[in-house]
Amino acid sequence: MAKLNGIRKTKDGIDIYAPSDFEGMRKAGAVAAKILDDVIEVIEPGQTTAVIDDFVEQKIAEYGVISATIGYRGYQHATCISVNHVVCHGIPGDKKISDGDILNIDVTVIVDGWYGDTSRMYVAGKLPRKSERLIEVTHDALFKGIEMVRPGATFGDIGHAIQSYVEGNRMSVVRDFCGHGLGRVFHAAPNVLHYGRAGTGPVLEEGMFFTIEPMVNLGRPETKILADDWTAVTRDRSLSAQFEHSIGVTADGCEIFTLSPAGKFHPTYSK
Fold it and tell me: Could you tell me the residue range of the domain that residue 38 belongs to?
């Protein structure tokens, strides 16, 4: 029998957590979100992604929590940093970011055994108009998906809401990567697809914890993995953006565990 992380599993193998477990997820999500607020101060043209990653690693130590990614399947960094046409899983390094670059920073921390996983977009210097529109649509698509989360809805409802919004704005949803269950583990059932048909897939129940994290491309949806076996890029080299929240299903809707404490989830704040 599959290991229970929550109080029971559904027929689809999805963990159901107790109401008391929400507090653990709130704490983990709040720390992850605070780190993504903090990192704003080191994002500027000329900065390397390695320096940004080092900053995050220092904050993780300062807050007395654990990085979920350092040592995960051999990965050696506290973040994934995905710049411009990198879709996800960009590895921090010596590459300098340039004026007008857009970047996604993805952080997962472990707090008292609970996983807080979130990512958002940042801009180095002046934001080009086409990048601004991509970021706007990706951000809003995430929240279109979140609006569907309530007991009795399906995971297909989430994917359909995201896909129809993105494609209605003449952009494309990446299909090669998806959201995932989490809680006392980093990755668990279900796969949360960001496309699909309404009314299909597992039914949402109170106590499910998972991420929604749409990746949206200005061009076509296809991706490829680079030789490092981690980094995913758009095949047509079009710009890509992503936002991610960790979510818990409540009796009448959902709770977002990774809201920005400073209200800076969307990169239109002034520094």
Answer: 9-256
